[in-house]
Amino acid sequence: MKKLDWYLVRKFVGTFIFMVMILIIVTVVIDATEKVEDFRKHKLTLHAIVFDYFAYFIPFIVNLLTPICVFLAVIFFTSKLANDTEFVAMLSAGISLYRLYLPYFFTSIVISILTFYLNAYVVPKATAKRMDFEYKYLKLQMTYGERDIHKKIAQNQYFYCSSYNQYEQTAYQFSLEKIINGKLESKLLATRGVYMDSLKKWRLDNVTIREFLIEKVSNQVEFIPEKITQITQLDTSLLLTPDDIYRKEYFAYMMTLDELDEYIALETMRNSDFLPELLINRMERFAFPFAAFILTLIGFSLATAKKRGGIAMQLGVGIVLAFVFIVLVQLSKTIQFPGLSQEISLWIPNVLFFFIGLYLLWKAPK
Questions:
Q1: Rounded to an integer, what distance in angstroms lies between the CA atom of residue 171 and that of residue 202?
Q2: What is the spatial distance between Cα 48 and Cα 54, in angstroms, rounded to a whole number?
Q3: In whole angstroms, how far apart are CA 123 and each of 126, 129, 199, 305?
Q4: Left, alpha or beta for 184 (phi > 0: left; psi -120 to 50: alpha)?
Q5: Which residues touch 240 (CB under 8 Å, ≥6 apart)?
Q6: Percent of the chain beyond pLDDT 90?
């Protein structure tokens, strides 16, 4: 059986890689066609386009298309084996259909693990680089329009600015308040604050620090007049970055799993409105890789029998099922099932189609 197992694994992997390469070429050509005018407008070199954009675009596409490529690969090469009566010979030799599924099972598990690693660590870094390129050259340069921005940035610290320019990373009318037990202890005011990436610090201009000191005397509370300090320029570290003020598109997808966990802990402390989206993104990274395993099960169950319509019929039925599955996966990110949290709802398509796959395997001719 070892030779037969490796034969099926080679067929699976080879067809999968072929499908991935074909879809990458098609996707890159379409994307390049859409953006060619932007590339020309900014006079980008071929080296910049290939190594600063497409080198980071391709990992994103590979990760996105892996489940459908796995499914198409399984349907395509398994249907061919069935139509060439190779499966008839294997089953006639006394090999059970479930035993023939084992090479598929282990290959799909390996692909799922690789997909999880891509999703958790490789794609986020590539997405961050790609989005930097897009914001620099491809997206319309528009200043962040929100006014009067208030945010809790630490346990007792609150940030405010009247406006923010994301391209210059500058906050205007910068304010930082320290409030303990409902009492204002200090307030920092600056005409503007500029974030310096190289130092990971904020540079504040025309700073005024007001400290409200309280001293207890004989169980009596005595308020000492405020202390005012004025500084022309101040460099300071805060638990605040430009990403906390202005979140780029795909912001959550630009963090590795470890970075996402740290940011979730920070946003939990801040009681942020952005927390649910982060939790959904985290759960999605665990749920998404199972798609390759589930679609392998469904594809194998559909394709093992020789059908009158041939490969075309099996591909058609398979693509419809895969399309429904992918649509449900996308809908589960926004639709919450009654009685279930949004994070748990993400698993519903996986669970539903896993049982559909088991049913199809049970009903497959043996």
A1: 10
A2: 9
A3: 5, 10, 26, 37
A4: beta
A5: 151, 153, 159, 202
A6: 43
Domain that holds residue 26: 2-139+280-363
In a domain, 253, yes or no: no
Q: For 115-128, write each residue's pLDDT tens digit.
A: 999 999 999 999 99
Backbone angles phi and psi of 160, in degrees to 5? -145, 140
Q: Are residues 235 and 311 in the same domain?
A: no
Do residues 323 and 228 both lie within one domain?
A: no
Neighbours of 285 (CB within 10 A): 21
Q: Under the phi-then-psi rule, with left for phi > 0, alpha for psi from -120 to 50, and beta for the rest, what region is 330?
A: alpha
Q: 254 in a domain, yes or no?
A: no
Would you state the structure tokens that stand for residue 234, as one six-digit string?
A: 């101040």
* pTM more than 0.70: yes
- What is the tally of structural domains in the chain? 2
Paired with 201 in beta bridges are 196
> Which tokens go with 86?
């190779």
Partners of 217 in the β-ladder = 220
Helix (H, G, I), strand (E, B) or coil at 26: helix
User: Can you give the length of the chain in residues?
Assistant: 366
What is the predicted pLDDT for the residue at 105? 94
d(CA 291, CA 71): 9
Question: What is the three-class DSSP state of 35?
Answer: helix
Q: Which two tokens stand for residue 229?
A: 């300090």
